[in-house]
Write a structure and sequence with these properties.
With 422 residues, the protein is an alpha+beta fold. It has 2 domains: 150 residues, no CATH class; 201 residues, no CATH class. Helix content is 29%, strand content 27%. The radius of gyration is 30 Å and the shape is elongated. 37% of the residues are buried. Keywords: Membrane, Transmembrane, Transmembrane helix.
């Protein structure tokens, strides 16, 4: 009798423990699933964000175009190129080992506009507009739950979309340029080349103001951004002819100067700077940066363009680089060297290099537009004027010929900095 009672009690305990163990196991498995899902989401979100950042920066680079300095820029074409580049960038990246599979479309998940400050929030706000866009925003969510079986199960169970990874990323082009500053392993994409800005004496007609700003220069060369080649033909952008000093001339006979950024005019060093840009070491005597908001910057100069330097310029045909403008020149007594007072930065693209009989040379240069991480920005002078109600900003930002109240006085039409703003 006692034996039968003991057996019955054991069966009852097993009947209680088995469901309890199953319940505990289910809770443990659910917890593990949630942890796996969380880890997957963190990893996938980071990869999605990286993909979208790459796409929005690719779109931004397409907006930095020589088209911007033409009389009537074709923004529609630039936005089409930006859309294409953004989609191509997405194809080259993956999330969880698979392509993102997102199609970016203008006015849907790829938006163009401006980033303006708003008084109600104290922060900058993205306003969509096709009029002179300076910001690009991508709003997207990864379709489905790529390689995430836990999220697939939970979605089917709860009828929700948990487990998807998405991102909203924005990039902005800013041309409120104070100067340039190289940083570790990143040189300033600049030539050690200064161009005569103005000549009140009238001796030179090949000045930046006359040939470029007033568009008196010839338009005989064109640059193809697709093939990245230079050819003869008109493209709506004038050129300036830069001439070095003849062997028996004066320093003032030239309208371009080689600048001494730590080179002491050593040909090998100058060639390296022409080909690779200006490094921290090159700008050591300028405290590692070149800023122009405190007045002209005096730099030692020479109009001599040696054969090796001419060869280096020849190699750089078609590539847009930063150049310097000067409007005052002081010659050292008994020397062909002097000091150029540089006042500003411009973008320039060498279209041709012509060697002259007297061992001087001519460089045909066309203004160009470029962006660089080494650009040092200044806050817009009229930031306060933009702190107005959102409705007023939206009305202003879409008016043709206006840029949301921004003045042009402290903007550089040739040089931009492209950076992520959201």
């Amino acid at each position: 009798m006692r034996r039968l009672q003991t057996i019955r009690t054991a069966h009852q305990r097993r009947g209680v423990i088995t469901p309890l163990a199953a319940g505990v196991l289910l809770v443990v498995l659910a917890g593990i699933a949630l942890i796996i899902n969380r880890l997957w989401l963190d990893a996938a979100s980071l990869e999605v964000t990286t993909c979208i950042e790459t796409a929005v920066l690719a779109a931004g680079h397409e907006m930095v175009s020589d088209e911007l300095i033409k009389d009537q820029p074709d923004y529609e074409t630039l936005m089409q190129r930006a859309e294409h580049s953004a989609n191509e960038a997405l194809k080259l990246n993956s999330v969880a080992g698979q392509q993102v599979g997102i199609k970016l479309t203008k006015d849907e998940n790829l938006l163009f506009g401006k980033s303006v400050p708003v008084v109600e929030t104290g922060v900058r706000r993205f306003l969509q507009t096709d009029h002179e866009p300076r910001s690009i925003q991508i709003q997207t969510q990864s379709p489905g739950r790529i390689a995430n079986p836990v999220a697939e199960f939970l979605s089917d169970l709860t009828r929700s979309h948990a487990g998807t990874a998405g991102a909203q990323i924005q990039a902005t082009l800013d041309n409120h340029v104070r100067g340039v500053r190289p940083f570790e392993n990143v040189a300033v994409p600049a030539y050690p080349l200064a161009i005569l800005k103005t000549d009140p004496s009238g001796k030179h007609t090949q000045t930046w103001e006359l040939q470029i700003d007033q568009k008196q220069g010839k338009d005989e060369y064109r640059y193809d951004p697709e093939t990245k080649t230079v050819s003869q033909g008109s493209d709506g952008i004038p050129e300036i002819i830069l001439t070095g000093k003849p062997r028996r001339g004066e320093i003032s006979d030239a309208n371009m100067q080689i600048l001494d950024f730590g080179s002491h005019f050593n040909t090998d060093t100058v060639m390296q700077q022409i080909l690779s840009g200006l490094t921290r070491k090159n700008l050591k005597q300028f405290q590692g940066e070149l800023l122009f908001d405190a007045g002209p910057l005096p730099v030692k100069c020479s109009p001599n363009i040696e054969n090796g330097e001419q060869d280096a310029f020849q190699e750089m045909i078609g590539q847009c680089r930063i150049c310097f403008l000067y409007d005052q020149l002081e010659q050292q007594s008994g020397s062909f060297e002097g000091t150029a007072f540089c006042t500003n930065l411009v973008g320039g693209r060498i279209m041709a290099v012509q060697r002259l009989d007297n061992q001087a040379c001519e460089i045909i240069l066309q203004p160009g537009v470029l962006s660089s991480r080494s650009v040092v920005l200044a806050a817009p002078e009229d930031e306060a004027s933009l702190n107005q109600p959102v409705q007023k900003i939206e009305q202003t930002v879409n008016k043709v010929g206006q840029t949301a109240g921004l003045k042009e006085s402290n903007q550089n039409k040739y040089i931009y900095k492209l950076y992520l703003t959201q």
